[in-house]
Design a protein that fits this description.
The protein is mainly alpha-helical. It contains 5 helices and no strands. α1 runs antiparallel to α4 and α3 runs antiparallel to α4. The protein is globular, with a radius of gyration of 16 Å.
Amino acid sequence: MRPAIFTGTWWRDLASRLVRQGQQVLIPVLAVIAQGQGGVDVAAVAVALGVGALLTAVRAAGEIRASADSPWWVRTLDRATAAAAGTIGGLVTVDWVHLVGGLDPAAVAYAGLASAGIAVLTALGDPGAPALSDVRAAR
């Protein structure tokens, strides 16, 4: 039996994850880099997104994720923490290699929270997500 990484399903899942990660990370990364640089540095954005993509690929290769039969909130938490980690990891790397000087640590943390928030909002459209009326009724 060959490892899962050699199947088409695995590669399609990775592509889906990379697109989703890019959507969840791009706006907060752009905001922090523009704030720290006084403008958008394309190389810095590319490095930040690249690090986020690398973290996503490592998680996919290690099959580190909530299972499909997990409750919706567990899958959403998994997605939100991955988005925050990708954003923070990418921005810390950009700062570390001095593509952008002196990023504000609070701005980096807020960007991670923003990415997590975007991940939660996008998860509301997933199959199995509770309707907002169900969430309000549960309170």
